[in-house]
Every structure is written in C-alpha cells, then in structure tokens.
Amino acid sequence: MVETAVKIDNVSFKYRNSDSFALRRISFEVAEGEFILLAGFSGSGKSTLLKCLNGLIPHFHAGSFGGNVEIFGKSTLESETTQLAKQVGFVFQNPENQISNLTVEREIAFPLENFGVPKNEIISRVDELIALLNLEEIKYKSPYSISGGEQQLTAIASALALNPPILVLDEVTAHLSPRSAVRILNLLNELNTKHKKTIIIAEHRLDRCLHFANKLAFLEKGQLKVFDDVRTVFQNKEFPENMLPKIPSLFLKLDKEIGLLDEKANELPLTVEELVATLK
Amino acid sequence: MMIEFENVSFRYDPKTDYVLNDITFKINKAEFVAIVGKNGAGKTTLIKHFNGLLKPNEGIVRIDSLDITKEPISKMASIIGYSFQNPNHQLFAQNVKKELEFGPNNLKVEESTRDTTIQNLVDTFQINHLLERSPFELSGGERRLVSIASVLTMNQQVLVLDEPTYGQDYRQKKRLGSFLNKLTDEGITVVVVSHDMDFILDFIPRTIVLSGGKIVADGETSKVLSDQTLLQDADLISPLLLDLCKSLQQIDDSFTISINEQEVYENILALISKDRKISR
Hints:
The complex is a heterodimer of chains A (280) and B (280).
Chain A: E1 4-15, E2 23-31, E3 35-40, H1 46-51, H2 56-59, E4 63-71, E5 74-75, H3 81-87, E6 88-91, H4 104-114, H5 119-132, H6 148-160, E7 166-170, H7 178-193, E8 198-202, E9 215-220, E10 223-229, H8 230-235, H9 246-258, H10 272-279
Parallel strand pairs in A: 3-8, 3-9, 6-7, 7-8
Antiparallel strand pairs in A: 1-2, 1-4, 4-5, 9-10
Helix pairs in contact in A: 4-5, 4-6
Chain B: E1 3-10, E2 20-27, E3 32-36, H1 43-47, E4 58-63, E5 66-67, H2 73-79, E6 80-83, H3 96-106, H4 111-125, H5 140-152, E7 158-162, H6 170-185, E8 189-193, H7 197-203, E9 206-211, E10 214-220, H8 221-224, H9 228-233, H10 240-251, H11 261-279
Parallel strand pairs in B: 3-8, 3-9, 6-7, 7-8
Antiparallel strand pairs in B: 1-2, 1-4, 4-5, 9-10
C-alpha cells in the first residue's frame, strides 16, 4: 500500500506583522511518489504553504498557526526541524540564499557534515550526487562563480544529500534562463519517476512541467481552490483561463469550436506530442 | 528619446577581451525593444552604457543629441529610469508607499503630481494592499513588481528594465506588458532585457540578439524568435507553438509556421477541415 507522505489538515497561518491570513483552512494529502504542482498568483500563499512542510512554519516564522501538518504520520509540531530535514529536502527560489561554502563539493557535503555522517560515507554520497546531477565539471568550483542554473543544481544536490523521500521546491526556475529551467524540470521528473522521490513544487512555467505532475493544486488568496488530477482541473475549467498553459488552452479552444474530445482524443493533451497525436 | 550606438566597443580591462565589439544600432523614440542573449553575451554591459554608468572605449553613445560620455550621470539619471534584475539591490524604504515616493521626492516633483503618478501605478498593478507593508516582507514576485513601480514613478523618457518578469505570474506580466505598451504610446522609449520568451512574444515588437558582444540579429520579434540558430545563440528554447507548427508541417507540408497563438489556432482549424473533407 502507498503511504501518505504529507497530510495537511485544516492549516491556517498569519504572519506576526500581518493583518490577514496567508493561509486559510487548507487541507489535502500527498501520497508517496506523487508529483504535485502548486500554482497560484504572486502572493497567494504558495511559499508560505511550502514552508509548512519542513517545519520552517511554525518553528522559525513567528505568527499564528492553526491546524496540523503530518510528514509520514508525524506532526511537524512535534518534530524538530533537524529531524524534518531528513524527510523533506527544500530548495528556495534564489540559490544565493542557500549557498555558503567554498566549493560545489563542500556545499553538497555540508548537510552531511552537520549530521556527523562518517567521512568515507560523505565522500561516496557526494560523488553519487555529483554523478546523478552531472556536476563533475564544476565539482571544485566556487558556487559563487558558476551560472544560476548550476547554482540551482548545486542547491538541489545539497537538498538531496540526506536522501529525503520528499523534495519541496519553491519557484526554483524563476531566475533561470529557459534552457536551464527545462534542464532542472526534467531532472525533477527523473527524480520522481526513477528515484521515487515525492515532489512538491511551486512553479510559474506550467507549460514545461505540467505533464510531469499527477496533481495540480491551485491557491488563491491563501485558500485552496482546487486540488485534482491535472487534466481534470483544466477540463472542468476549474483553473483561471488567463493562466492556462498554451497547449491545453489551444486544444480546449479547438474542442469548443469543432468538438475534438470524443472524436479524436480520449483525454486532454498536455504536450506538443500529445496534441499532434490527436490531430493525426 | 532616441538611443543611438555607433561602432561602440568596450572592455572592462585592457588585458581582457572586448565585452562589446563594434556595436551599431538605433532605437527610436517610443519604441519597445527586447534585448536577448546568453549570460555573458554583454546585455548588462550594453544597457549600462545607456545612462553613462559605463562609457565606451571606442565609438559614441547618444541619447537624442546628448553624447553620454560628456554628460554627468546625474543628468542621465533624470532622463533614463533603470530597474535592476535583483529587487533586493534596489529596495530599502520602511514601507512600499515610502519606496514609491522616494524617486519623485529626490527629483523634487510636486506632491500632487507625485501622488497622481503613484496612484495610477498602484491601480494599474493592483498593489494597494501592499502600501503599508515593508518591501522585505513581500513575496518574491511582489517585491520585483514594487521595484519596477518605484522606477516608473519618475516619469523618465527612457526606461531600461533588466528581467522585469522574474517571479511574476501571468496576470502581473500582462499588466506590466500592457502598461509598458501604453507608455510607448505616450512617447516613452522602453528597453527590456529578458529571457521570458512568452512575454517578449506577447508584448515586444522588436528583438535584438546579442552574442559574444556582437549583435547577431535585430528585427521583428516573431521572425527573430522562430529562428532555431538564433534561439540557440541566445540561450532560449524554441517556443512550444513553434515546435507544434514544425510537427504539424511533417503531417501536412503546406502547414504554415507561426508563433502567434491566434494564427496557429486558425491554421489548425483549416488543417482539420481540409482533413475532414478528404475523409468524406
């Protein structure tokens, strides 16, 4: 049986200096191995929600917290953030916020050193991650001298160091060129399908990753508006039309005009390849 | 105002290679232009010549009739508004309202004029609810938006925005794009450095591609961005609509390539109806 990796139960949160709630009564569950895409306009509460998953909220950010978040059945309120770090790897939007070491290799080793992992184990784990993410060429470089995309890959490698089953990423491609962004998103897909990581990601480039996702969560003003299978969300028009990714948007327009869904396709296409297949 | 580069070359150090290499181009008053290129192509170096932050080793940069090498930076700053890529380098005030008032106050703009301009920006970007908050409490996207708005308060004749859509959701991008379009209607010249293909395609009519310190393309955006070699040069990936058109061309070689959403929609409709006639 598949385990529940994350259970968010009626979570509300208000930052100490704010008048309004950043999150309002949010509930949903994520099964182990799922890829969850979190969408919403700026300021809708995406980052706040993600910070609840590794205990940054309520342990570090002051404010009023209500409800409960469980990671593999254990409440974050009862877990130390150091323990949560072994369960949930976290990558921020700006890699510079996360980098602190002299070389890429040391950066990846840092969490392992913090947990007192024996040296030979650290060396083999770091080498494993460097191979997995193709970072051989920058292994001995300063993380401050590499490109933004490489910095973000280093941050991901470092988040993976403790081998957490869950990886949470907050708009990690926002500062990257499209080419680096696609590389990162494809890597996340591989981590999900091949390495069975549960992935929860807030991302604006829906076009480039929605086909990787099992489910789509849409936040608006701190409320969870919809949480469902990606195709179902788009098909049922539960998603703001002006945020619809290009390919599903084009298909839905064509379908409305000439009815493609039953005649040519059983389900809504999400990628160029899928759309072309329905038109053949 | 018009921006004119005539055989401009620049290097940071006489021992190193030229970062800009014999660059000549002209941007007319009220034009809206995108500059694209890989990291290290010279984009930031180029736009730092607009307001005299950097001065060419060879060649001339003119803003209308002003030779920037001969004008003090303070004068150029009153003509050219410049928004940096990272909002944290720009924001500093206690709250968003004070942040927005800072520029006009510095330029000794009359209070009523200042307030009208700010109100207009606040309405356009719908950031009324942020005015009393500290810029450092805002989400990444909100912060970027405030840093752009704080430049727009000064009503300068030329605007230079470095990656203005970083961290912005589609809705905010659309507001920003339409607002900048409106400014060009009023005679303001707008130059945007960006990797955001969708934003460029939707709003910016002309695109200049820089590669290795040289201009490798300059023309209508839809033409420039459908050239695979140029895209590669600029570290961009081909737009999904271009991929779609190319795949459809393999099915029917009369299918016309376009990266305009409405045109692609109509071309597919035509393709399907042709197909239906044949099958009857």
